[in-house]
Amino acid sequence: MAGMHTTFAPLQNDTFLRACRRQATDYTPLWLMRQAGRYLPEYKATRAKAGSFMGLATHVEYATEVTLQPLERFPLDAAILFSDILTVPDAMGLGLSFAEGEGPRFAQVVRDEAAVARLAVPDMDTLRYVFDAVTSIRRALNGRVPLIGFSGSPWTLACYMVEGKGSDDYRLVKSLMYARPDLMHRILAVNADAVAAYLNAQIDAGAQAVMVFDSWGGVLADGCFQDFSLAYTKRVLAQLKRTGVDGQDVPRIVFTKGGGIWLPDMKDLDCEVLGLDWTAHLGKARALVGGKPGGPGKALQGNIDPNVLFAPPEQVAAQARAVLDSFGTPHTDRSTTGPTHIFNLGHGISQFTPPEHVAALVETVHQYSRQQRARG
Amino acid sequence: MAGMHTTFAPLQNDTFLRACRRQATDYTPLWLMRQAGRYLPEYKATRAKAGSFMGLATHVEYATEVTLQPLERFPLDAAILFSDILTVPDAMGLGLSFAEGEGPRFAQVVRDEAAVARLAVPDMDTLRYVFDAVTSIRRALNGRVPLIGFSGSPWTLACYMVEGKGSDDYRLVKSLMYARPDLMHRILAVNADAVAAYLNAQIDAGAQAVMVFDSWGGVLADGCFQDFSLAYTKRVLAQLKRTGVDGQDVPRIVFTKGGGIWLPDMKDLDCEVLGLDWTAHLGKARALVGGKPGGPGKALQGNIDPNVLFAPPEQVAAQARAVLDSFGTPHTDRSTTGPTHIFNLGHGISQFTPPEHVAALVETVHQYSRQQRARG
C-alpha cells in the first residue's frame, strides 16, 4: 500500500487528536466540513486549472494544493483529504461525473436484481489516486495538523447508487428498500466492506483519523435508520484498523446529518467521536453520550449552522460563543479522559460564504474556548 | 363571517375528533396529508378544468369537489380543506403563483427594512374564497367526517416570504434571521397574528379542527427553533378560538417536520395534538408527551414514511402494522381520557403514489387497530 512504510514529520498541533481521544486541551480545536472549497478564490483558481471536480480530486498535486489552502488562511486544527464521498461507487464501475452547476451523477444505476448481483467490493488499486493524495497531503502538511480521511456511509452511497443523483424525496432508494429489503441489504453489505477497505487503505497511506459521512441517514424512518444505516456503519467500524502508520491510534468519527434524534442508538457505536448537526443541543448530547471524567464516552463534533457565516462578524462571534456555551466547559483534567468538543459546522460550508467571516469564527472559537477553560 | 350562523348536519363519524381529545375509539382513525392531490386521476381532471392550482384553490366548487374525492375512494376519518399554506402571504400582497412543474413563487420578497415595514395582517375579506370553501365543504360533507382547517406556521410562511420560493439551504431567510433578528421577529409577529385571524375565520366558517404546518421548522438550529418558530406557533395558539360554530371544542394540531428532536420543548404547547414525521418513534413520543389515563397529555398524529406507499400492498400493510405497534395499544377506557393515536403519513403523499396502495394502507390501519384493541 502507498505510504505503508513512509515516515512522516512529528505532529506539532495535536489538539484535534487529543480532543478525539477525550483528552484535555488548552482550547477547543476546530475544522470545517468542506473547508477546502468554492468559497475560497484560490480553490476556484486551482479548480479552473484542473478543468473539472474529478480532475481536481484525481490529480495528486491539485488535491494536495486545495487541501492545504484553508490552512494558509486560517489556523485550523485539522486538514481533511480533498475528495468526494462517491469515489467508492465510482470504483465499482458506476461512472461518476459532475455536470457543471449540478451535483454528482452516475452513468449506471443499481435498481434491480441483476445490477445488485453485479456489485462487488472494488479493487482498491482503482482508488490509488485517493491513497496517493493522502500520502502527498500528509507529507505537505509536514506535521502542522493531523489529516482526516473519510468516506460516505454505506447507506449514503446506496442513495446515490440507486437514485443515480441527489434526490428531494429518496423515492427510488426507499421504494427499493421497502419493496425488496433483501436487495438493499446486499447493496449495503458490499458498500460496508468496500468502505472499510477504503478507509483502511487511507489509514495505511497516512490518515490520522477517519470520518464516515452518513449524509442521508437522517431521511430514514425510525427503525429503518437502525437497520439500513446504523447497522452498516457498525459493520464498517468493526473492520477498521485501530493503528496508523506511525503506530498511533486512529480516531473514528461518525456523522449522521439529521441523526440527533437517534443519539441514544449511537451511544454504543464503536467509534470515538460523534458529529452533530445544528438541530442538536450540544449540552444535552454531552449529557447523553459525552461520559464522565475517567469513564467511557464519546467526543462530540459540531455543530454551528453554516448559514451563521452570512451574518456580520459580530453575529458570527456571538453565535460561535453560544455553541461553545451550549457544550459547556470541556473536561480540563490532564490526568484522565472526559467530555470534549471539536468545533465544526453542522454541515459543509456554503460556496457563498465570505472568507473573512470564517476568520472571525476561527478566532472566536480559539479565544473564547480558552476563556471558558480559564473561568472553569 | 361566512358560515357564522350556519347549521350543519350532525357528525356521523367522530373517531378523529375523539382521538384528538384523547378519548377512546373503536379503531385508530386516519387521514393523509395532501390526501386530495395529484396521485388521484379524478383530482387531475378537476385540476385541468380549473386551469391552475390557484384556480382550483380559489374556486369554491372545485375546492369542494377535490376535497371530497379521496373520501369517495377510501374510508378516511377526516377531510382537510383543499388550499395552500401560502394563501396568507399572498393576501399580504406578495403575489403567489405556481409555475407548471415548479413549486410556489412570490412576485414580491421580504428581505429588507422597507419590505418588512410594509407588512401587515391582511384584511380577512381578501381570503373569503378560503372561508367560503370551508363552509361549502362542510355542507358537502354532510356530517360524514369532520373537516380540518389549516395554515402554514409563522416561520414556514417567513421562509417563503424571504426566499421568494422553496429553498435547499434557506440561506436568505437564515441570513436575515442571524444578521437582523429584529426584522425577523417583526415578520413573525405579523405572520402569527395573521395566521391566528385566518384560522379563527376558518373555525367561524365551519372548520372542526385546525392544524398548523410548521413544514420548515426542522431546518432551524436548536435555540433558533424555540425563538423563531415555536414562540410564534405559541402566539398563534394563544389567539385561537376554542369553540366552533356548533359549540363544539376545536382541537388544534401542530406539526413540525423534522421536529422530533424538540418534542420535549413541544410538550407544554397549548394544543391537543402533535404531528410527527417518520424519524420519530411513536412509542417514545407517547412516553414523553402522550400522558397517562386521566392525566394531561397530547394525542399523537403520524407517522408512516410516504415512500412506503411505493412498495407492494403486503409491504404497505406490514409497515402500517409496525407503525401501529410502535405506538402500542391506545387507551381504551371510555370513562376517562388517555394516550391516543391518529394515523397519518409523516409528510404529504407523493403524486406518484398508486391509489390501490393507499387502499391497502387504510384497510390495514382500520382492521389491525381493532385487533390491537381486542388483544388489549
TrEMBL record, chains A, B:
<comment type="function">
    <text>Catalyzes the decarboxylation of four acetate groups of uroporphyrinogen-III to yield coproporphyrinogen-III.</text>
</comment>
<comment type="similarity">
    <text>Belongs to the uroporphyrinogen decarboxylase family.</text>
</comment>
<feature type="binding site">
    <location>
        <position position="215"/>
    </location>
    <ligand>
        <name>substrate</name>
    </ligand>
</feature>
<keyword id="KW-0210">Decarboxylase</keyword>
<feature type="binding site">
    <location>
        <begin position="34"/>
        <end position="38"/>
    </location>
    <ligand>
        <name>substrate</name>
    </ligand>
</feature>
<feature type="binding site">
    <location>
        <position position="160"/>
    </location>
    <ligand>
        <name>substrate</name>
    </ligand>
</feature>
<dbReference type="InterPro" id="IPR038071">
    <property type="entry name" value="UROD/MetE-like_sf"/>
</dbReference>
<dbReference type="InterPro" id="IPR000257">
    <property type="entry name" value="Uroporphyrinogen_deCOase"/>
</dbReference>
<comment type="subunit">
    <text>Homodimer.</text>
</comment>
<feature type="binding site">
    <location>
        <position position="84"/>
    </location>
    <ligand>
        <name>substrate</name>
    </ligand>
</feature>
<feature type="domain" description="Uroporphyrinogen decarboxylase (URO-D)">
    <location>
        <begin position="148"/>
        <end position="164"/>
    </location>
</feature>
<feature type="site" description="Transition state stabilizer">
    <location>
        <position position="84"/>
    </location>
</feature>
<feature type="domain" description="Uroporphyrinogen decarboxylase (URO-D)">
    <location>
        <begin position="29"/>
        <end position="38"/>
    </location>
</feature>
<comment type="pathway">
    <text>Porphyrin-containing compound metabolism; protoporphyrin-IX biosynthesis; coproporphyrinogen-III from 5-aminolevulinate: step 4/4.</text>
</comment>
<keyword id="KW-0627">Porphyrin biosynthesis</keyword>
<keyword id="KW-0963">Cytoplasm</keyword>
<dbReference type="InterPro" id="IPR006361">
    <property type="entry name" value="Uroporphyrinogen_deCO2ase_HemE"/>
</dbReference>
<feature type="binding site">
    <location>
        <position position="347"/>
    </location>
    <ligand>
        <name>substrate</name>
    </ligand>
</feature>
<dbReference type="Pfam" id="PF01208">
    <property type="entry name" value="URO-D"/>
</dbReference>
<protein>
    <recommendedName>
        <fullName>Uroporphyrinogen decarboxylase</fullName>
        <ecNumber>4.1.1.37</ecNumber>
    </recommendedName>
</protein>
<keyword id="KW-0456">Lyase</keyword>
